[in-house]
Structure formats: C-alpha cells, structure tokens
Amino acid sequence: MSVRNEVVSLITQHFGRGAALPAGDEESLLENGVLDSLALNELVGLLTERFGVEVSEEDITPENLDSVAGLTRFLQSKGVSG
Amino acid sequence: MSFVALPPVLTRFSEFGASHFPASPALTHSGRTLSYAELDGCAKAFAAQLQQRGVRPGERVVIALENSFEYAASLLAVFLCGAVAVPISPDTTAERLHAIRHDCAASQVVLREALARKLGIAESGAPLLLHAHWEQNQTAWFSNTAAADPAADPDPEALAMILYTSGTTGAPKGVMLSHRNLLSNTQAIISYLELTGRDSIVTILPFFYSFGNSVLLTHLATGARVVIENRFAFPNTVVETMQREKPTGFSGVPYSFYVLLNKSTFPERDWSFLRYISQAGGGMRVEAVRQLQRILKDVSIIVMYGQTEAAARLTYLPPARLNEKLGSAGIPIPGVELRIVDERGQTLPPGQVGEVAVRGENIMLGYWNMPEETAAAIRSGWLYTGDMGRLDEDGFLYLVSRKSDFIKSASYRISPGEIEEVLAECAGVADVAAFGVEDDLLGEAIAAAVVMKGEEIHSFDAARLREHCLQRLPFFKVPKFIFQEELIPRTSSGKTQYFLLREKYRSHGSSTHAAS
Questions:
Q1: Cβ neighbours for B422, distance < 8 A, ≥ 6 positions apart
Q2: Domain check: are B147 and B109 in the same one?
Q3: Any chain A CB within 8 A of the CB of B264?
Q4: Are residues B346 and B486 in the same domain?
Q5: Interface check B115 vs A, CB under 8 A
C-alpha cells in the first residue's frame, strides 16, 4: 500500500466516524472536523506505533500533520516508503 | 476611563462598530483583515440574504461555523434582522444538529457545504450553504448590494441568543440570553479588563461557546481587533501567531495554558507586548499560575469565573490581588451580586461552604422550552449555579466543587449522558456511567465504567467499546479509559452516584484496565 493510502486508512479507521475525508489531499483535517487537538495527540502516537516514526515537538506543525498530503510528505521525509 | 455607550440592543451592534471605528481593523484571519466598516457591510449583505429567505424578528437561526469572518458576519447579520442567533459547534453530528434545530424551531441553518454533505443535510430544509473559502463566500454571500431592511429595535429584554449546553442526560439545553444580558455583561467585562480600541487579542476560544462569544463581543464593542487562530492543535503555531501579531491580550481555559506551558515554546519567548492574559473555564492549578507569573513578569494575570447562564462572566480576581488570593475566583464583576447559600436558600456567613447564587442583568432569561429546569435554576431572581464555594472575610470567592456531574475535559464541558448512550449501543453492555478522572493536561480525562452481561462479562474488550465511541462521537468525547464494573452505584431513586466513581478512579489514569 502506498504511504498516502496508509495515511488515509489510518485516519479513516481511527478518526473517520464513518464520514468521508476532505475531497483534496491538501485540505486541512482540522478545519474539516476530522481531527481536533486531542485527536492530534493520538495521531502522533499512532504514527510512532504504525510507522515507527518518532515525532518531536518541532514536528507538530500544520505543514506536517494537518492534511493527508502533509502527513504523507512528513512520513516519507522520515524514511517511510510504500 | 471613558467609554462610548453601547447600543441598547444588538440589532445596532454592527452599525455601532462601523460608525465609531470604521477604519479600525476588526478581525484578522489567515493574513487577511476586515475593518469595522467592511464587517458591517458583510453583515448587512448577509442580513439581506436572510431576509430574502424569510427570516423575521424573533426567529431562530442556527450558525454552525468555526471562528471565521463568516461566523462574525453571520452573527451580526442575525442580530441586524432582530432574529435570534443559535451558535453551535460545527463539530456536531446530524442527530445533535437535528435535535437543536427541532428544539428551537430554527428557520435557517448557516453552515459550510462540506459539513452539510458530511451530515447528509445538504438537500433538506434548504440550509444556507457557505463555501470553504472566504473569497468565494465574500462574493456569493457577503457583498450583496441589496440593502437589508433594518429591523425595528426589539425590547432589550427580548431574546437575542440561545447557547446550547448539554444537560447531564445529554439532551440539548438552550440557555436564553437577552440583548440586555449580553450587553450588560459585555460592558462589565470591558470595564474590568479596561479594554479600549488599542487592544487586540489572538483568540483560540470558539465563538460558539460563552467564553469565546464574550471575547468577540467585548472586542467588537470597543473597536479592538480580534485575531482568529483556530490551530490550537499546533500550539507552536499559536505561539508564532502571537509573536507575529503582538496582541495586548490572550484568553484561555486551564487546558490552553497547560498545553502552552508544556507543549510549546511559550515559556522561552518574550511576551512583553502583552498587557494581560485572562483565564476562565474552571480552576487552574496554582503551580501553572506561578509558572505564568515567572514567564510573563509584568503582564496582568486575570483569573475569572462564569457560566453560560450568566452570559459568560460572574467574577474576576483583580490582578493586583492575585498573590494574596491565589486559588480564589475573585469578586463579582460590576453589576453582579453573589452570595453563598445553604440548601434552603439562606445566606451563609464567610468561611462556610454552600451553593453559589448570583443575581444581575447578565443572568439568563431561562432555558428554552424548559420551564421546570428554569424554575429550579432561577429562584426569586437568583441563579443557583450548581457550583459550591465559600467567601472569605474580604468577599473573595473560593470554588470548592460543583454539584453537577459534567466532565470538564480540555476546554469542553461534556455531558456523561451522551457518552453513556453511545456505549449502551454496544453488544453486551448492560449498564454504563461516564465520569471524569484527574488528568495533568486535560484537567479531567473521560472515563467510563461499564457493566457487561452474558458472555461479554468474561471477554470484556475495552478497545472494542472505545472503537465504537470513535465511530460515533467527536474525538473529545471519546473515553480515554473504560473500566469494567460489576455494578454502577446508584441512589435508591436510580440516580447515578458519579462522585463514587470519580472517587474510586481518581488516580487511575494509568490503570491496566484502561483502554488507551
């Protein structure tokens, strides 16, 4: 599975509430109500659990974590490949 | 200090800003700014749209938007129409939106297309569907040249806003606030915060909550600037926004400050541009106040206490008395009377713990369509807050506990009933109670005690139950911990004794029985 699809699967499974993700991969997960600040903390834990990626305080930025595309790029920058 | 007198009703609020501070910046969001004149133009355009759809004075209009230009302009537009604003969180479910819409018989719902699609209501009842981005909305909704027909001034006692809170059963409970309630509280807050047009704030508090609503109204009433920052999930982004915008004020709930102190670069930055910070929404740990004092040095720290039923604010601790009265919620704000009463409503002397009762022009009209609950909450003109506290000899309030069983987690007041209903849907669940357990960051984390039946007694699977909650509830309402119990403690009349569960699991944050 591609990194992007793994990200989608992770988010849908844990935070989707059965609803569709935003139409565009660059769209904000927070603004679209998929994540809130508490969910984001859980997401950080899941990234470590699922992909073995350590997420530092500096990594917790909208650019890295607030969209499917951002998460994909972030994971790839940490060496995760599909 | 001199203030421009506020208008007697919110119907004139938008124009008030435009006539007194037309060129001043009113709102900033994502690098864009609207002046007061522009905001008034947007509000008038949207009011015309509402009127074209038949919105008349006194009708209810639900606004399900996050903090945005669209939210502020819609709110002012509803006021302009003499209608009643019903702001709710856009992080809602179709069931809750339906329940609120039905309860207050709202004639219109303002929300974004994407949310309407998600909730499956895009086609039903012709909601006012806004686009995702301001540029599109500005053209489509907020720059209509057809002038709104200004509504005649309503009575200041008329209903202006309904803010829904959850009853402990989870059923929505509409707090009815009049023009006078909101404006008198706005005036009082301006006075003790000494707000002027030179002030500005970066706000992370949702406008659809009482606290956030008061931040919006007080700043718009003084010609101050509100910088909208909705990315509190990324605390360093909030820190950067504050460093860039250099506001004079910042307001938060204890959770906001716990996160900033522990999960961001806030402690290392220079905050000399701040004039004050204010905190409400529950008692903050004294250690956190001390940390803030060390970091903020000459910045006033203003601890406050309030309720939605009081249009927001009841007391504040004057910053000069902070060290002397640490742990106190302060003294009544201008226009509010406060006393501590026993179970018969008799005033108790200083030092004795009783229920906090309050009176003033800010106290709600009552709960929408709930005469019995209203009569129980407001007796002889006094609001019985459900909070327990005592006054010291100087008249400073110390809150001790609350009578209600709400869970206060992060910035949310969560009803156990809603969580219990969702858990009760799970196969094998015979009984359930949701409650709060102490949490360093959240104040309280949500826990649930579950009684299983049949085979499930021996194969209790907390992760499965939590998974179900994740599918059905917004994340902030999902229990962090789920414990198996043999019995939920109840009184002889069947009322859940939440305090026994809170007591039992007080420090069970890391229990091995927990699903986390």
A1: B468, B469, B472, B473
A2: yes
A3: yes
A4: no
A5: yes
